[in-house]
Amino acid sequence: MTRVAVAPDILTWACERSQLAPEYLHTKFPKLDNWLSGERQPTLKQLDTFARSVHVPIGYLFLERPPEEHLPIPDFRTVGNLKIARPSPNLLDTIYVCQERQSWYRDYSLGSNLPTRSFVGSVSLDTPIAAAASTIARVLHFDLDARRTCPTWTDALREFIRLSEEAGVLVMVTGVVLSNNSRKLDPDEFRGFALSDDRAPVVFINGADTKAAQTFTLAHELAHIWLGESAISDGTPLSNSSNRSERWCNDVAAELLVPLEVRVTELRRNEALSISLQRLARRFKVSTLVIISRLRDAGWLSQPEASAAYAEELARIRLITADRDGGGNYYLTTSVRVSRRFASALIESTLGGQTLYRDAFRMLGMSKVATLHELGRNLGFAV
């Protein structure tokens, strides 16, 4: 039986990096304490299982000292205006796979002579908030009139995503890494990120977050795309980030969803807050969380009042929606997870022989030809 010499510091780093409960790791690997103390070495098979369990490339475990890992895009996340020290493996792997998809789609766009997206990088932090929001609404055709036909704000979110994709943005929404339901993303770590590119702009939305929050995340990350800026952020309606770009994107997102010029005329004196929230959410087809932030902006709620109302409303929404997510049509879910625009292009290229099935499997998070073909049929391809 071949045993492998692994530095205890590397194993300790891998355990901490995984953010898995120590009890779980010790149950799964009964000899872990012996490995960590250096009293015993794992077999190659045990080491391979360990690497997969903690989501670390096995080659890392043969290093002499733990590597320094950095996010591949600017990190605007903060907790109490302090930078978050270490990204989780789930976050890192999500960014990497989205970058791979973006790179593939950029090559596909060039090979297919698709146009560049002129809106990417078309504004700056000096662009007035209302002007930037108006530009995004005009390009996407996502104004109040467009939303008025949507029965609910959840329908408006689906339309928001569809129009963003139609304009050329690859919108990916999922709460897990690839299709691995055991690797759930944590909305407290990040809500979304933007990968800027004039041919393949990507917006990723953490689908583990409430749908109420996803609308604002999409608007916020689109603002980053319009700046021509790749970034991971924690944008929320009530965020008070010290980062100028984050504040600007929050303001643009709020203005896009609930414009100032119509917001003021909708306010009613002496109306109960709960009634105002529901009425304005129906009017603007956004979540009540966004309405709370705009009531604060209008001076109708103080910062402490808005924070208290936001926390109470978020708890109510999470309670209502806790058991609603999951299930559904696998192929519809897959196209949402990877972007319908991206999935259609990849299926077309794979069926046409330009892309290897193994590469398509990796980027889609699947492993069977039959599954890929069925996804193609669901996207309208004759397979």
Walk me through this protein's architecture:
The protein has helices at 8-18, 22-28, 32-37, 44-54, 89-111, 129-140, 144-148, 153-167, 211-227, 244-257, 260-263, 273-284, 288-297, 303-321, 330-338, 340-351, 357-364, 369-378; strands at 78-79, 82-83, 170-174, 176-177, 180-184, 192-195, 202-206, 231-233. The chain is α+β, with helices and mostly antiparallel strands and 383 residues long. It folds into three domains: 8-62; 78-258, no CATH class; 330-378, no CATH class. A four-stranded mixed β-sheet has the order 3-7-6-8, with helices on both faces. The chain has a two-stranded antiparallel sheet with strand order 1-2. Strands 4-5 form a two-stranded antiparallel sheet. β1 and β2 form a beta hairpin. The chain is globular. The chain starts with 7 loop residues before the first helix and ends in a 5-residue tail after the last helix.
Could you name the key traits of this structure?
alpha+beta, two-stranded antiparallel ribbon, 383 residues, 3 domains, globular, 4-stranded mixed sheet, single chain
Q: Helix count, per DSSP?
A: 18
Task: State the distance separating the first and last CA atoms.
Answer: 48 Å
* Structural class computed from helices and strand pairing: alpha+beta
* Number of domains as seen in the coordinates: 3
Q: Count all strands and give the number.
A: 8
Report helical residue fraction.
Answer: 40-55%
Uncertain segments are none
Q: What is the string of SSEs from the N terminus onward?
A: HHHHEEHHHHEEEEEHEHHHHHHHHH
Determine Rg (CA atoms, Å).
23 Å
- Sheet of most strands: 4 strands, mixed
Strand content: 5-15%
Average pLDDT level:
90
Strands of the widest sheet, in order across it, are 3-7-6-8
Shape: globular
